[in-house]
Every structure is written in C-alpha cells, then in structure tokens.
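Late entry, written up from scratch paper. The run itself happened at the end of the previous shift, but nothing got recorded in the book at the time, so transcribing now.
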Amino acid sequence: MTEEQPTLYCANHPTTPTSLRCNNCEKPICPRCAVLTPIGYRCRECLREQQKKFDTAEWYDYILAFISGVVISFIGSILVNFLVQFLGFWIILVFIAIGTFSGLVITEAIRYVTRRRRSNRLFQIAAASVIVGCLPILFYNLAFFNLWSLIWTGAYAFTAASAVYARLRGLRM
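Output as recorded:
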C-alpha cells in the first residue's frame, strides 16, 4: 500500500497547492515563485542570498568607477576628434580599434580602482560613464556643426561603452 502525502501549499501563496520544493531550503514553492537555475528550482530568497555573495562592490566603488570612466573616455573622445580632423574618411578603419582599445583601458582602470570588486550596477555605471565622458566633445561638435566628427565621436562612445560593459560583465571578445 502507498502512503498518501499531505497536500503542500506554497510558502508565499498559502492557497496554492504544490509538490515543488526549493532545492536549497526545502521550502514548498509554487511555479510562480520558483526560479529555474542550472541546478534545479530555487525560491527567490535563496537566489537572492546566492547573488549577494557575488555582489562585492562597496558604495565608493561606484563613484570611483564613474570618475575614472569619465576621465579616460573624455581623453579618448578628444583623441578620436583629433584623428577625424587629420584622417577624415580613413577614420573608419581605425575607430573600432580605438574604441575597443579605449574600452579595454577604461575597464582595466576601473578594475584597478575598485580592486576587482563587482556588482551588476557597477557594470552599468561604468558603461554610462563612458558615454558621459564623450558628451563634452559631442556637444562641441554639435555646437560647431561638425557633423563628421559628431558621427565618429558617437561611434567611439558606443564602441567603447559596449567594450567596457562586456568586459566587466565577464564576456570575452
């Protein structure tokens, strides 16, 4: 004879019957509360606790990352603006390399000043700092109707911000 199991109810939704449990804390959870991970279903509380272990950034890391990203990006955008004046159309061949290399330099500077601490928000702030660093040169080119430099400085900002975000997230190019 088989023994009948008592009906379990979700810990977050007491009226929802379930047979699913968190594989970490064994708490009963319904499909709405379950999060599929590579090792099974987890409740949101256990998932949050696991993610906290990987968020190691301090409050001042965000400020340091933003400032270093803005400064280096500003220098890179000045370089791109200068090169556009001399290379003209041939900047197409080098702007991707300049943007990616500048993104690499910015990433390593941010890793250095934050002592390799990490968080999801830090990646986003670093990418935003690259764009903010390019804004003065973009506005300068806009004010003087220098459309060619405006386009390539914008392309540099996009390339460098993408490189910074991807490298800080752990994606390898």
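Strands lie at 8-9, 17-18, 35-37, 40-42.
(Scratch paper discarded after transcription.)
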